[in-house]
Amino acid sequence: MKGFGEQHKSKKKSNKKNKPSKEQIIDQAFKYHLEGNILEASKYYKYFINLGFNDYRVFSNYGVILKDLGKLKEAELSLRKSIEINPKFPDSHSNLGNTLRDLGKSQEAKSYYLKAIELNPNYAEAYCNLGIILKDLGNLQEAEVSLQKAIEVKPDYTYAHYNLGNILRDLGKSQEAKSYYLKAIELSPNHVEAYNNLGNLFNDLGQSKEAENSYKKAIEIKPNYAEAHNNLGKLLNDHGNLKEAEVSLQKAIELNPGYAVAYSNLGIILKDLGKDKEAYTCFQKCLELDPNDLAFNIHAKLFVSHIPSNQLQIEQERKEINKQISLIGNNKTIIYKNNSLPNSIDFIFYLAYHNCINDKEILENIANNLSKKDGIINADFNVDQRIKESLTRKRIRLGICSSFFYDHSVTKCFLNIIEDFANSEIELIVFRGQSDKVDEITEHIISLATETITLPDSLERSCQIVIKSSIDILLYLDIGMSVKTYFMSLSRLALVQVLHSGHPQTSGSRNMDYYITSKPKEVKDSDQFFSERLIKMTRLPVDYSLPKILNSTFKVSDLNISEDDFIIGLPHTLFKYHPDFDEILDKVLEEIPHARLLFFEGIKEYNTKTLLSRWKQNSKSILKRTITCPRVKFDDYLTISKRFDIVLDTIYFGMGNTFFQSMALGIPVVTLLPDKPRGGGVSAGYEQMGIVNPPIAKSHKEYISICKKLAFDNSYRENICKQILLKSKDHLFNDKNIYKQHIEFFEKALESAYKKEL
User: Fold this and answer.
1) Mean pLDDT, 10 residues at a time, over the chain (758 residues)?
2) Which residues have CB under 8 Å from 684's CB, separation 6+?
3) 465 Cβ partners below 8 Å, 6+ apart?
4) SS (H, E, C) 88-116
5) Among residues 465, 342, 345, 470, which one has the least CA distance to residue 396?
6) How far, in Å, CA of 313 to CA of 376, rounded?
């Protein structure tokens, strides 16, 4: 707070009634205020005002106290009175700006900071506060300039260094942000907020250990700092340390029982730990604390099981999701608050694995109802202006957006095609999230791009940044796996918006134009399952490298497998095992007495336990004849996979990366022809390679029969293995021409966009 001014010199003589003089009252009020005795200072200020005296400093200082007490309207009146008495006192303008900011009057607050600076061009605090309000308004570059000026005027101004670090982090200037956080800590070694936000920055950079240390340092300085406990809990959860994460979040809530965000984060962890009832209690507590928050309503009301018990449960949960999202959308009291998105969109992601025909209906309903909420949809895109800009360019500006530009299954599918785009005549702009994981693959992708733009956590600013980047075509590698990219896909941010098959599911968004797939993969009436127009390429639309074992020390003998065992590989993520698949596995084992299943544990322990529990209840043989393998590194996984005699494609939702890996090792994959999209990758791959008499079934009965044939007809199995090894190298892997079909489509789509057509 600024604005005590010089104290008046008290007069020795008092008035006739022996009352303190005006000057004595002011002096005593200022003295108490300087000493930090706010209660007494406030009494004297109020007493002074009640006597009818007018002094701009008193009204200014009293306004600051009222603001700190949360009496914002009274503070505003007091500060306006100060300015009325003395319009040239800069502190009153700055203090009024602070109050107006807390009242949500950002534009008006900005004008008062500017007036304070006009009156005092060396007013560091006003420059700092102006920078903060500019950040709130989304004017990050101007905010950066203002904070730099505050530091120029006052180089040891800790708060300015700290806030400049926050702005630079939002601008994606991570290393600069880091230096300002460290400077703030150097100036004030116990600056807990700087340590906390430095932890957030390290988390952005993928430096999890450094992030953890920063959060712990903040907690060491201030053990009751709930926000640091919350952030530490989130970090531990991201890295799979669920039980430690639970402890940290419980501590955050203990310190701040009204901390709704911590309850929300704890609810996500409890759900992953299989503590559904406790998770539900947390989400209900969020609603109790803030019943109108959209994110909290989503967590509390939109639930889907990761590992369902049966088809009836699937259908009941889907029906409830469809019902609840409509209620949320039509309830005008539920609003998108504080730029706060939900922590998870599981209720969207898992729909793809249910083998139901109404995915499109549900996803369109979700998209339409979320789009009703103010702040979700960005309406700033100007089609005519963008067409004009695009026509002046000689090269297509292609933006590629994903949250998974690291060692992840999505990037494994698309890394080479990104390289192919980068080596073409296309201008490649990569959009990644501020909090996304970072590794060597991330750095490689950044090196390939014409430009890499790190999007902040804010949905509004992310959409604005993409629009300002003037992208011709915005390509989402996946939608439904990441909260941020899903919500971005609801808005129009580019002339052409395209969804690729990283998650083979429609978006349901009316602003997504096309979905890239392949003709051999899709069923006859696939179009009816997508809200986008399907672009069916002649081959699988990826350029996948031939996987190789580079460094593995794993000994398959440790798995206790006999040479006579017929090993059936189940190398899938656990949510792909539809309940209908259990009966097929049972019958396969019944038909092949010497068969054993090799099954990999899931990332989350609870999911593994849930699936094994389902098998125990529903199956005669699966658990008795299954080898449960712990999660291993990729090279060890390939080493184990070499021992598979066959691999079973899950029914309904087909294989992706695991198909390519199986083909690299020459392992036959048994697959079922789909009657809906989301399967079909394996059969399309066989067709692309030209495999003769491939193990493709048209029914559950034939699926079991093919497994039996592969187990007992060695010549058939060996023939399939040889064909795979021979033909996959030339016809499946390293497809260096498929990117040309993408570019041909991009060109035609852009031509149509100029005509405002598909």
Assistant:
1) 44 51 71 72 75 81 83 90 92 92 89 94 94 87 95 96 93 90 96 95 87 96 96 90 93 95 93 88 94 95 94 96 97 90 93 95 98 95 96 96 95 96 95 88 95 89 93 97 96 98 94 96 90 96 93 84 94 95 96 96 90 93 93 93 96 93 97 87 96 96 98 97 97 96 97 95
2) 518, 520, 521, 540
3) 453, 455, 456
4) CCHHHHHHHHHHHHHCCCHHHHHHHHHHH
5) 470
6) 31
Helix axes 605-618, 579-591, angle to 10 degrees: 60
Using DSSP's 3-state secondary structure scheme, residue 144 falls into: helix
Gap between the Cα atoms of 651 and 248, Å rounded: 40
476, 401 in Cβ contact below 8 A? yes
* Amino acid sitting at position 71: K
- The C-alpha angle with vertex 452 and arms to 151 and 503, in degrees rounded to 5, equals 130
Is residue 77 a contact partner of residue 97, using CB atoms and an 8 Å limit? no
Instruction: Using DSSP bridges, classify how beta strands 595-600 and 669-672 pair: parallel, antiparallel or unpaired.
Output: unpaired
Rounded alpha-carbon distances, angstroms, from residue 447 to 119, 202, 440, 543, 550: 48, 21, 11, 19, 24
Tokens 């409830």 belong to which residue?
Answer: 320
Does the predicted model carry a pTM greater than 0.70? yes
Report residue 527 as tokens. Answer: 């179009």
Query: Can you tell me the distance from the alpha carbon of 601 to that of 603, in angstroms, rounded to the nearest whole number?
Result: 7
Beta carbons of 603 and 631 less than 8 angstroms apart: yes
Distance CA 293, CA 285 (A): 12
Query: Distance between CA atoms of 539 and 541, rounded to whole angstroms?
Result: 6
Paired tokens of 455: 């999007």
Residue 435: predicted pLDDT: 79
DSSP string, 520-586: TTS-TTGGGG-SSEEEEESS-S---------S----GGGG---TT-EEEEE-S-GGG--HHHHHHHH
Residue with tokens 């006859």: 524
The Cα–Cα gap between 27 and 29 comes to 5
- What's the distance, Cα to Cα, between the start and end of the chain in Å? 58
Chain CA centroid to CA 198, Å: 19
- Res 50: pLDDT: 78
- Which token pair is 561? 């497998």
The sign of the dihedral angle between the CA atoms of 502, 508, 511, 515 is positive
Q: According to the model, what pLDDT value does residue 128 have? A: 95
Whether 748 contacts 689, CB under 8 Å:
no
How many angstroms separate the Cα of 443 from the Cα of each of 398, 406, 414, 425?
19, 9, 15, 22
Length of the chain: 758
Residue with tokens 């005509």: 755
SS3 591: helix
> What is the largest distance, in Å, between two alpha-carbon atoms of the chain?
120
Question: Dihedral angle at the C-alpha atoms of 114, 119, 125, 131, nearest 10 degrees?
Answer: 20
The CA distance from 193 to 162, in Å, is: 8
**CA–CA gap between residue 371 and residue 379 (Å, rounded):** 11
What is the DSSP pairing of strand 646-648 with strand 626-629? Answer: unpaired
Using CA atoms, how far residue 527 sits from 126, 506, 511, 536, in Å, is: 58, 10, 17, 10
C-beta pairs of 93-97 under 8 Å, 24+ apart in sequence: 93/119, 93/126, 94/2, 94/123, 94/125, 94/126, 94/129, 95/1, 95/2, 95/3, 95/60, 95/63, 95/64, 95/67, 96/63, 97/126, 97/129, 97/130, 97/133
How far apart CA 105 and CA 100 sit, in angstroms, is 5
Tell me how far apart the alpha carbons of residues 274 and 69 are, in angstroms, rounded to a whole number.
Answer: 43
Which amino acid is residue 534, in one-letter code? L
- Pair 540, 733: CB distance under 8 Å: no
Distances (CA, A) of 442 to 404, 538, 672: 9, 30, 35
Cβ-contact 66, 60 below 8 angstroms: no
Phi and psi at 377, nearest 5°, equal -90, 130
The whole-angstrom separation of Cα 133 and Cα 140 is 10
Distance (Å, whole) CA 518 – CA 541: 6
